[in-house]
Amino acid sequence: SLAGKHDIFKSLNKAQCRAVSSEAPTVAILAGPGSGKTHTLTSRVVWLIDHVGIQPQDIIVATFTNKASNEMKARIGHALRDGREKSIIIGTFHSIARRYLAKYGQRIGLDPKFGIADDSDSRGIITRICKRSDTPLEPPVARAWISKRKAKGTSDERTIKDKKGQSVESQALERCFQEYQSQLERSNLLDYDDLLVRCVELLRKFPQCVSNIQTVLIDEYQDTNGIQYDLMKLFAQKSRRVTIVGDPDQSIYGWRSAEIKNLHRLLRDYPGTDEISLEENYRSSSCILDTSLKVIQQDQERYKKVLLPVRDKGTRPVLRKLKSSTDEADWIVSEIKRIRLLSGNMIDFDDFAILLRSAALSRHIESTLGREGIAYRMVGGFKFYERTEIKILLDYMRVIHQPDNNDALARIINVPKRGIGEVTIKALLEEAEKTSISLWQLLDRHFRGQRRAKTNIRQQTENAISGSLMKPLNNLREKVRQDAAVGTPMNLIDLVQKLIRDLKFEVYLEATYGDEYESRWANVQEFVTLAEEFMRQNQVDDEALPTIDGFAQASDDDILAKFLSNVTLASDKQTEDKDQEGKPLVTISTIHAAKGLEWPVVFIPAVYNGSIPHIRADDQNEERRLLYVAMTRAKALLYLSCPQNIASGGGKPAELSAFIDLLPSSTFLPKGPSFDRPVMSSVAKILGRELPPDNVIYKGIPSMTAPEDNLFPVDPNKPFNSHTDGVTQDIWPRKRQKTQHPIKSVQ
Ligand code: ATP
Ligand code: MG
């Protein structure tokens, strides 16, 4: 049998085995959360390399986040044991597209030194264009319109053109779009959508670039958009071999033009697709799975599928209402500490995740964790790279790399303060635009004294710019040039450190931020560490694409370019599960960024109407799916909570999320000592871990149950008969379920 010959099959069920070794050209796995889709996809890659004999560099794997691709690479590496996984072309669609454009972009007229405009860059440019427009345009609307237009993919181009010119507004939007594109071009920038659009263009014109590709695999397929679908087809244009895995119930990127209809397209474009479903959930306790399913089943129109629990029953989720967001944060952190103690450290800090609908909710939790000295990491939405002090450094590096980047230059021109006001900056930009040169070229002229006859810039401004901006920047650019000239790879760390010194950045931060200076300076140091890590990683793992014989291509991009695009494409700063001192970290993440991941214990705070479903969301079903994604991240314990009053709403009362309010109160654990010793043994079983004996745990732990919670006292020392026929029963006997709805009983 297969299992005898290959280790990978040992951890797979029958349907998974079939999917891994399917010989059909196209395989589609549609299945619920925790059913092992990602696990199966990873195993299939190993199978294709080890058994079918496909070369790793001929495989493309697209994942949804950078974190997911790193994890997948590590898993594949673990199975192959010979380092071949390094050659697999694995990453997000954007990062794969970037690699192809860096290597072959010149063929379609791209300057190989192109930079990437991140979200805030695009926002800035569009806002400026909208302000100038005769027809009033809301910048966010314009931005969404432009992005949608690009993301639709080329197959929809005709429909867009047909609609064009219908209204004054759509004409204005079209003009805004054109202006935006030409500004990006002038600065040699591609935005996120452009990376995909231009890569499609490249692969249409030069299919040779992907002539080696034997197979394409895609995780989280439900969240691909039209242009990503085009890209997938182009990657697979020669081999026509595609494997996709996904779950329509977890489609949460409709706002970014993800399209469920890509599933139908796939079945139409690739006839004979082997459709496989996986029906067992290996992740969550059956109580958690049941509750999650009850939520998603509120959606009447969804495509129904089977998802059966494999794990023990476990214990019902906890639902708590607390006085305020501060109380909510306090409660979460005290539960984390309590569970950790109660489990005798069987559950440690890195087993906990706090999942938030929006990044703005993290403030209270961060400060409480900080106060308690519990280390944590932030994932998604809380972008490290968007912190002001880091953005400044990055902008300087962008200008060093690519001086014609007007936006980056305009942002740093007066940072640190050089006495150049907004008005002057605007005048400079306008002057540059009028003379059709970049801002840098304009400044450079002034700096070199080749002043044109008439200029608006006052002498003072000129001195400021030349002395404190142009000089250090020119020095650094000179350094980069010298490094390149003698053929030594640039030392990124030297560059960053020199930049920090030249700018007197520490002094600047101290002067600007006072009390907050220390944490800002710590971020700067973290940034240096990051550059170090990047250098190190780059030596080991060169992201080079395979070389296609007889097809001229650019040499691989320099390290500064790679670093900058990596930073821009990273959805978050990626930290290990342990901090530098080796302490395990609690995770705080947005729900969006938690997709595909799992933790033993999950907290979902702020489940009130307005937060989830979000007040500005227009698709209620998508909001419900978002909650479903969050809940299905939990393996053993799930906590939902909500404050009585919305802090940001000036103390307005919070209403429990409709998605949760619809559930029968028996779904949740009745009010009482939330989780206790008997629960711990069921948790241990679900996680496959060993619970330290009682006497070790209870030594020195104070009673954890608050008196007001003590409705149904459980003697922690009394053995609890929780196992019947190998199934852990819900810890609350039936007759106790008649309590009031817990959330309503807390005033
Ligand atoms: P999601 O939809 O949330 O991305 P998924 O379908 O990709 O979920 P995985 O993350 O691949 O699910 O798997 C969930 C968990 O189940 C993982 O911890 C995985 O190791 C485990 N698992 C998957 N298949 C099996 C199996 N056959 N036996 C035991 N454990 C399994
Ligand atoms: Mg997955």
UniProtKB/TrEMBL annotation:
Family stated for the protein in its record: Belongs to the helicase family. UvrD subfamily.
Domain of life: Eukaryota
Listed GO biological process terms: recombinational repair
Coiled-coil region(s): none
EC number(s) given by UniProt: 5.6.2.4
Record's protein name: DNA 3'-5' helicase
UvrD-like helicase ATP-binding domain mapped to chain residues: 10-285
Residue ranges of domain UvrD-like helicase C-terminal in the record: 286-596
